[in-house]
Structures are given as structure tokens and as C-alpha cells.
Design a protein that fits this description.
42% of the residues lie in helices and 18% in strands. By secondary structure, the protein is α/β, with parallel strands linked by helices. The chain has one domain. Strands 1, 2, 3, 6, 7, 8, 9 and 10 form an eight-stranded mixed sheet that branches. It has a two-stranded antiparallel sheet with strand order 4-5. α1 runs antiparallel to α2, α2 crosses α5 and α2 packs across α11. 38% of the residues are buried.
């Protein structure tokens, strides 16, 4: 990540606290499905700073690091908008406001800066320019290595203008499916066509080699043998709506407990999941600003 973008991120967002959080008037538990700690971020910059993170983060999100020429950022941005993310300049505003890249770029930046995530492969490779549609799958393909174990940061981002309830509904509609061998295996099989773009340190190429040699193997079991652990961060971005921070986070946690049940899983490798909550000043203003900069081809920060 270029230093200017990292600096902007550090001036715009902070980790407020983790859940469970007890040093407040009303203790806030972690969510009923979380297997580690939920993270609660706080916006300390302006709405325009959040918009700038999204707009300037598209290149980092769309390309592998070795493909990013910092002297050609504007050209890479223009190419990414046509070939790496779902964006149609002729679509009406409601459709453009619903594009997934707004939240996915933020997820990428957060995993990079807060979790020291590295790309297994850039998310832009999961886009079909011909169909103008993303391939179904995780919203991030990142990783971190700790004591010889690979933690796959394969997550999800939801940024609905209608609020956190719609985002959570969308998450839970697919969550059991996300923790199945069949879903994990299909995501890895997609990598077969992207083999040359995969980071070798992710150990994914080695697993693809084994699958090519024996196509009937269970890839999830193979990943477990390669000391992989699936980490599923779920980023929820939503408006603050003039509520106190603690009050709002507790409201979201209580809503999850009241409306959703514990997940079921048949995944063969170890996994963990947690939420990342990020209340924002004005989601519509942020997204509209990003789209305006795209429309007028605002130069990127160097």
C-alpha cells in the first residue's frame, strides 16, 4: 500500500475496541456466532476522507502488488473500472450506489492495515469484464502467516444504504453455505485458471498442483494438511444516525442475537469468524462522492 493511502487511513479510522467490551456503562458482549473477538472501528476523519480511501484504494484492491506502477496510477484506475470491478458509467445512480466495490475496497484496506493481510490474489481477478459481473465467492482473498500456519482472510463486506439490518440479512442468508467444503473447494478450483497470479507463499499453488494430479481430492482436507485456517471477517458499514457509539454497537449485537441463530458447518479445516463494525457519518454522501470522482476522473493521490 502506498504511504499516502496508509497515512490517510491512519488519520481517518481507529480501532475503538474489541468485543466483548466491559469498560462502559453497559457491557457489550461479542455476537452469538463470533469465534474470536469482534472489532469495532470508529471514523475520526471526515466523510470525504472515507470516500477518498475507497476511491484511492481501488488500484490496491484490484491488482497484485507487483503489477502496480505508482507512476501510472490514473491509468491503472481507468483500466480497473473497466476490467476489474463492477462499474457501469451509464447505470443510474441507485444502481451505482449499490455496487459492491465500495465495501470491498474498505475490507481490503482494513485487512491490510489492521490485520497485516497480504494478497493471495487481488480481488480484481474475480471479475468477468464480458459479463460485467463478479464471480461468486469471498469478497477478499488475503492471508497472514503466524508460526508456520497460514490464516486465509477470506471475508465478506456489506455496505447497504438502508442500514445494518439489511447488511446482516444478506450475510446470514449465505453464512452456512460459506462454511462448507463444497463452497471452499469451488473457490479454490477457480484459482486453477488464475494459477500464475497466485502468491506462492500462500501455499495455494501447491494445493492446486495436488488437485490437478488428483481431481477427486477434498481440497478443504488438503488445505488442513497444509496448516491452513480459514478466517472469515464480516465487515458491516452503516450510518451512525446520531446515536452514541456504545449504544449503537450494543443495538447491532442485540439485533443479531434476536434475529439470527448459530451457524452450522461441515468445513474440514479449522475456521474462525468475527464481525468488523464501522459506523459512518453519512453512507450516501460517501458513496456519492466516490462516484462523482470516478465520473470526472479525479487524479489519484501519489
Amino acid at each position: 500500500m502506498r504511504q499516502s493511502l496508509k497515512k490517510l487511513f491512519e488519520e481517518t479510522l481507529i480501532l475503538k475496541y474489541e468485543l466483548p467490551h466491559t469498560s462502559c456503562e453497559r457491557p457489550i458482549p461479542r455476537t452469538i456466532i463470533t469465534k474470536s473477538k469482534d472489532r469495532c472501528l470508529e471514523q475520526i476523519g471526515k466523510n470525504s476522507d472515507i470516500a477518498s480511501l475507497i476511491y484511492n484504494g481501488i488500484v490496491e484492491y484490484a491488482y497484485n502488488d507487483n503489477e502496480i506502477d505508482f507512476t501510472q496510477l490514473d491509468k491503472l484506475q481507468a483500466r480497473a473500472l473497466q476490467s476489474k470491478i463492477k462499474y457501469n458509467p451509464n447505470a443510474d445512480l441507485p444502481n451505482q450506489l449499490g455496487y459492491g466495490f465500495h465495501g470491498e475496497v474498505m475490507l481490503h484496506l482494513i485487512l491490510d492495515l489492521f490485520f497485516h493481510g497480504k494478497k493471495c490474489i487481488a480481488r480484481g481477478y474475480m471479475f468477468s469484464a464480458l459479463a460485467n459481473a463478479e464471480i461468486k465467492g469471498y469478497d477478499s482473498y488475503m492471508m497472514t502467516e503466524i508460526r508456520d500456519r497460514i490464516y486465509l482472510l477470506f471475508g465478506e463486506a456489506k455496505f447497504h444504504l438502508s442500514g445494518y439490518k439489511e447488511s446482516l440479512k444478506s450475510i446470514f442468508e449465505n453464512i452456512d453455505h460459506a462454511f462448507s467444503d463444497s463452497y471452499f473447494n469451488r473457490n479454490f478450483i477457480v484459482f486453477d485458471n488464475l494459477y500464475e497470479k497466485l502468491a506462492s507463499e500462500s501455499r495455494i499453488p501447491a494445493i492446486i498442483d495436488e488437485w490437478r494430479a488428483a481431481p477427486c481430492i477434498n481440497i478443504a482436507e488438503c488445505a488442513r494438511e497444509h496448516k491452513m485456517h480459514l478466517v472469515y471477517p464480516m465487515l458491516i458499514l452503516f450510518d451512525k444516525k446520531n446515536k452514541g457509539y456504545d449504544e449503537l454497537i450494543l443495538e447491532v449485537v442485540n439485533h443479531i442475537e434476536a434475529t439470527h441463530k448459530a451457524i452450522s458447518s461441515d468445513l474440514s479445516l479449522p475456521f474462525s469468524l468475527f464481525f468488523i463494525f464501522l459506523p459512518l457519518g453519512n453512507s450516501r454522501e460517501i458513496k456519492t462522492q466516490v462516484l462523482e470522482w470516478i465520473k470526472r476522473q479525479q487524479p489519484l493521490m501519489p
